Amino acid sequence: MLSVKNAAGGYSKDLVIKGIDLTIQKGEFFALLGPNGSGKTTLFKMINGQVPLKQGEITIEGKSVAALSKLEKAKKVAVLSQEAHVSFDYTVEEIISLGRYPHQKGVLKKLSKADRVIIDNVMEITNTKIFQKKQFRMISGGEKQRVLLAKALAQEPELLLLDEPTNHLDIKHTFHMIDLLKEWQQTKELTIFAILHDLNVASLYADRIGLLHDGKFLEVGDVNTLRKEGQLQKVYEVQVKNQSHPTIPKPQLLMTPDYKTEHEPVNFHHCYSVTQNDRLIHIQFSEPLRTISNGVAGEGLEWVTHFCNYHVDKGYDCSTPELDIRNWMAEDGIPCEQAVAMMTAVKLDDMVLMRKHEDGMNILAMVTAGTGNAVDISAKNNAALKRRTGTINTMVFVDAHFTDGALVNSYMSATEGKVKALQDLQVKDPETGTFATGTSTDSLLIGVTQKGIQTPYAGSGTAIGKAIGGIVYEATYQAVKKYLNRAGNQ
Amino acid sequence: MQNLFIRKFLANKFFWFYLLSGGFVLCTALLGILVSSVSVPVPHIFYIIINNTFNTLSYEDIAPNVEMIIWNIRLPRVLLAFFVGASLALAGAAFQGLLRNPLADPYTIGVSSGASLGAVIVLFFSISISGLGTFTLPVFAIAGGFAALLVVFGLVRLSSRSLAIETIILAGIIVSAFISSIVSLIIALGDRDSMTQIIYWLYGSVGMRGWSHVQLIIPFMIIGTVILLKHYRELNALALGEDSAENIGVNVTRGKTWILIGASLLTGSAVAVSGAIGFVGLVIPHLVRLVTGPNHMHVLPLSMFTGGAFLILADLLARTIIAPKELPIGVITALIGAPVFAFLLIRERLGRRGG
């Protein structure tokens, strides 16, 4: 469809584009990325025939762009750029009709019936029909861009060139607009060549991307090219972290700002407050912690300030636990977006709170334990579980700086500590009589301050991993003992 | 089928606009011929016009001097007023579309000042080239207008490759200012007599010109009108800006050149036969656009009709207000045009605030 061979050119003697090769297939969505000044717009204009080539060739369906007349080109290629200024009070319909210009025939060059059908069609698709009689100047920015898109589509192009078409649009209009383009691309085999500023939008919609740097392609490939953080950092000179989109397998990039908030080193054990009553243990930190957890609310990887452990009765109807816990937090004035909450039927009086402050390591652990539900994970035939009270809720807070991997590592270390404690107390799966490895509904949370030097590991081979496992072991041991004592006394 | 077509035609508002403006032209033309110190019954007027156009030689009860007044004085005067008004309004509409500025008028790019200079030179030096006779002045004026256009084009070409709008306006202002100062210089150097003559010419008039001037303006008017009407789509496309126009297939540079040539032909010839009559080219297209919307397919022809009729009316006022003396027609157009323009501006703003 579009082929760029060894193209070079620019406005003055200096070359802005320094030799580029690119082939775009019919029906492909290609996104051109790169920082300001990398030559995106120049390459765009070279493809559009506005900037002459100094070297090489650009062809559209085998025909050289330079050799095409304006009219011939407009029949194949439409352009949509940033919001345009329109003089005089043209109506939306009149603006869209301009898209038929290259196709009008005859002496009078009036709009034919076929033209009208196409205009009607694109107005329908772009949802602009409702304000077709309104003046273009009076409609909102998002509507304007949709009208200009309708005009471009009225040209019935085979290739659509987009120059940051969503620059002035909010996210709603951005996504509506590109969704529409994507649909047109898929149903009508429209080829799209787009300059996009937003790397994340490009990742979600483009089939292929090209990363332009200083007039040359650094790389051309599918959107997974965006996972190469080092490359992006070199081009954009911004700290970039790549993550996957939570629901679709595409990379999303997170930018880290350069400014730092300097804090005076404070004692970790002065950074939190613990309040406890019959129904709630609430640990509040002065700053958010990087947290990995499987709490009832706020699960997963988060930054969290409030850590809650709610007591429920043995007969609690647990059909909507998350909703209930959110309501309770709202009643207690705890912002649930910044909180992780767990649930237990164990008496909160039996909580074990353990602090560790040695070898430069600061750790706080909170455990409430009940073992009525104890389960041996390796034993068979207990998948259909009977609801009995008793769960082990563990919270571990560490003054350290973990990578995501180290966070998972520490999760393992804490679990191993718990299992070891149950083993030493000889807690057994009531169904099979074998040693239990946990209860059926255990919750675990690791919160890290992310201060100090970053550590990539926190397993049992490291001091910090051992410390975490150790404190969880001790705290669980005591908590289970308390539970067993209370159970024995009743 | 035929019926449906006609009904659809009648339902179209533009049909009524054309009918209305056409009727306006006929009414003002008739009024222009009718109103004067010597009253002639309407049937006689038609009779005289038909007789003279078809050369049927049978006028019995009409006095030859009445026929002289109608055929040789009033009719060419009305026609000239119509042609000049139509030319200026059409050129104004085209310039406004081309320069994407509703405040542009046919005099923005300096063609009229060039034409004025040509005419002033003829008046000042009392030049009369044998063979040209009374055509000496208009021929010089048209030549002056074209010389000014060439200078403007040259300036634009030298300073910008793509005929940028801003450069065209700037070059026009520079050339206009320069030529105006030369005209002022000539006026200052002249004696009282030629000064009055020059100033009166500069104010503009369509009186006492006769058929020769009508014949002179017609070819320019036809060529200019055809050129501009042919480029109505380009004028529409330019509303989005030149880059966007190019992207939908418009050859912008060629289009702009043709529109400039067409509008300059109209302006130059109008100024040459009648002097610089202001405000027609500014107000009329603006007014038309308010009624019909900005589509040049309709703005251009309707501006022509309305502009022509407006100038017939203005001329009628000019010669009747202080009859038997005449006011310069440019004074009338400015006296009517400026308040109307101000009113339109205010009304538009108020309307916007309301909506």
Give a brief outline of the structure.
Chain A is an alpha/beta fold. Helices cover 29% and strands 28% of the residues of chain A.
Rounded Rg of chain B: 21 Å
Fourth CATH level, the homologous superfamily of chain B: ABC transporter involved in vitamin B12 uptake, BtuC
Q: What's the assembly state of these chains? A: heterodimer
Biggest interface reads:
A-B, 31 and 23 residues
The overall average pLDDT of chain B, rounded, is 85
CATH class type of chain B? Mainly Alpha
How would you describe what is shown here?
- The complex is a heterodimer of chains A (490) and B (355).
- Chain A has two domains: 2-256, P-loop containing nucleotide triphosphate hydrolases (Rossmann fold, 3-Layer(aba) Sandwich); 270-489, L-amino peptidase D-ALA esterase/amidase, CATH 3.60.70.
- Helices cover 29% and strands 28% of the residues of chain A.
- Chain A contains eleven helices and 24 strands.
- Chain A has helices at 40-47, 70-76, 92-97, 113-125, 141-154, 171-188, 199-205, 229-236, 321-331, 404-424, 463-489, and strands at 2-9, 17-24, 29-33, 55-60, 63-64, 77-80, 159-163, 191-195, 208-213, 216-221, 239-244, 251-256, 272-276, 280-293, 300-311, 339-344, 352-358, 361-368, 374-375, 393-398, 401-402, 438-439, 443-448, 454-455.
- In chain A, strands 13, 14, 15, 16, 17, 18, 20 and 23 form an eight-stranded mixed β-sheet that branches. Chain A has a six-stranded mixed β-sheet with strand order 6-7-8-3-9-10, with helices on both faces.
- In chain A, a hairpin with a 6-residue loop joins strand 14 and strand 15.
- The mean pLDDT of chain A is 89.
- Chain B has helices at residues 2-11, 13-34, 42-54, 64-98, 111-125, 136-159, 165-189, 192-203, 210-230, 232-238, 242-247, 252-274, 280-292, 296-320, 329-354.
- The radius of gyration of chain B is 21 Å and the shape is globular.
- Chain B contains 15 helices and no strands.
- Chain A binds chain B through residues 48, 50, 69-71, 73-75, 77-79, 81, 84-91, 94-95, 98-99, 101-102, 104, 109-110, 151, 155, and chain B through 97, 100-102, 233, 236-237, 239-241, 243-244, 246-251, 289, 293-295, 297.
